[in-house]
Each structure stands twice: as C-alpha cells, then as structure tokens.
C-alpha cells in the first residue's frame, strides 16, 4: 500500500491517544478534509458538564491549505455543533500571540477577546503567550458568526 502520508499518520496517532477522552465525553475530535484529503484536525477538549457546560477548541491546518478558509470553516462548524446539538454553553479558543492567521480567523467569526495568558503553552522549545477568545450559545448566530449585541 505504500507509506502513510505524514498528516494522516499524525491524525491516526492522535485518534489512538484521544480515544479514552472521547469515550468519557471529555473531548470531540474531527479530521478536517479539503478536496478529499486530510488537511488538519479540529478538537473540542476539556469539556466540562454540570454547571459549566464549556469546552476549549483547538485546531491545526496543513500549511498547504492555509488561507483558503479551511480552518475558519472547521471552527465555525465545530462551534455550531458544540453550541447547538451538543448543548454546551461556552467555548473558548486560545491563540498564540504571533499566529496572525488564527487571530484573523477568530476575529472573522466574531469571538470575544477575554484576555492574555502569559507563558501558557510550551511550543517549539519555549513557553508562548496566548490570547483567549470565547463565545457563548446565546451570542452565536445562525449564520455561524457572533450576533450583534
């Protein structure tokens, strides 16, 4: 059959690692497809039920398809699902301060900026600051963007 493409292999490893979380109702994972090829991953994790009904959204998109709206569409669909049928009240997204593409993406969807987490995530050998954005179910509109107040 030949070698498994690196993006697909990485996704398969993630699925094996994430299975216990998903079975416990603490995470939802999706593969992101573009033109029939695996192009990234969308995750709702740290799902908390009870009085919180909240989650964190995370994602990555293959650099070969960056700038084509793939990530924005994946995040919009995940938010539609999380804040609709899943029944969550709130989803937050933390974005590295130097990730201009992702910052533009959450901005285009109208997520509310809530603050800065200093040295929040260890990436490429260093602790990176992240800006935090969020949206609640009442704010999320049927068009897949935040409703105007």
Description:
This protein is α+β, with helices and mostly antiparallel strands and about 150 residues long. It has a single domain, classed as Aminopeptidase. It contains 3 helices and 6 strands; from the N terminus they run H-E-E-E-H-E-H-E-E. Strands 1-2-3-4-6-5 form a 6-stranded mixed beta sheet, sandwiched between helices. The longest helix is centred in the first third of the chain and has 18 residues, at about 5-25.
Order of helices and strands: HEEEHEHEE
Question: How many domains?
Answer: 1
Q: What is the terminal separation in angstroms? A: 54 Å
The parts where pLDDT drops under 50 for at least 5 residues are: none
- Return the CATH class: Alpha Beta
Biggest β-sheet description: 6 strands, mixed
Major sheet: arrangement of strands: 1-2-3-4-6-5
**Strand count:** 6
CATH fold group = Aminopeptidase
CATH homology superfamily name = Gcn5-related N-acetyltransferase (GNAT)
Overall 3D shape: globular
Gyration radius, to the nearest Å?
16 Å
* CATH architecture verdict: 3-Layer(aba) Sandwich
Determine the structural class based on helices, strands and strand pairing. Answer: alpha+beta
DSSP helix fraction: 25-40%
Q: Mean of residue pLDDT?
A: 89
Query: Count of DSSP helices?
Result: 3
Query: What portion of the residues fall into strands of 2 or more residues?
Result: 35-45%
């Amino acid at each position: 059959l030949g070698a498994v493409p690196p993006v697909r292999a990485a996704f398969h490893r993630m699925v094996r690692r994430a299975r216990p979380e998903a079975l416990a109702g603490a995470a939802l994972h999706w593969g992101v497809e573009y033109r029939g090829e695996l192009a990234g991953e969308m995750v709702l994790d740290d799902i908390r039920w009870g009085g919180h009904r909240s989650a964190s959204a995370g994602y990555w998109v293959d650099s070969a398809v960056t700038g084509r709206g793939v990530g924005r569409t994946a995040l919009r669909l995940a938010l539609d699902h999380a804040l609709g049928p899943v029944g969550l009240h709130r989803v937050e997204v933390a974005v590295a301060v130097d990730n201009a593409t992702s910052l533009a993406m959450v901005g285009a969807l109208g997520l509310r900026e809530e603050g800065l987490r200093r040295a929040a995530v260890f990436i490429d050998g260093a602790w990176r600051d992240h800006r935090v954005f969020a949206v609640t179910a009442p704010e999320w509109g049927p068009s897949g963007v935040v409703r105007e107040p």
